[in-house]
Amino acid sequence: MLHATTPAGATDILVSYTFRIAFGSYGQDYGLASAIATVIFLMVGFIAWVNLKATRRLQ
Predict the structure, then answer these.
(1) Cβ distance 29 to 22 under 8 Å?
(2) How many domains, the chain?
(3) In a domain, 5, yes or no
(4) Residues 40 and 17: beta-carbon distance below 8 Å
(5) In this structure, is residue 20 part of a structural domain?
(6) How far apart are CA 56 and CA 23, in angstroms?
(7) Which residue ranges does UniProt annotate as crossing the membrane (predicted)?
(8) Full domain range(s) for residue 24
(9) For 3-52, what is each residue's pLDDT tens digit?
(10) How far from chain centre, in Å, is Cα 4?
(11) Residue 18 Cα to chain centre, angstroms
(12) What's the CA dihedral at 47, 50, 53, 54 to 10 degrees?
């Protein structure tokens, strides 16, 4: 189980949590921050791909 040294708040969004991991006062964990950024990139890419497919189907 992965335990980050930076606790996520109840209202944190994933991007601000990633920024705090990389550059925050809790320490700098560039590896974890880059892994989370890669997951964010893949999520956005997948959502964009689904949206493109749905838009083409409506034309």
Answers:
(1) yes
(2) 1
(3) no
(4) no
(5) yes
(6) 40
(7) 30-52
(8) 14-58
(9) 666 667 777 888 888 988 898 877 788 999 999 999 999 999 999 999 99
(10) 14
(11) 7
(12) -100
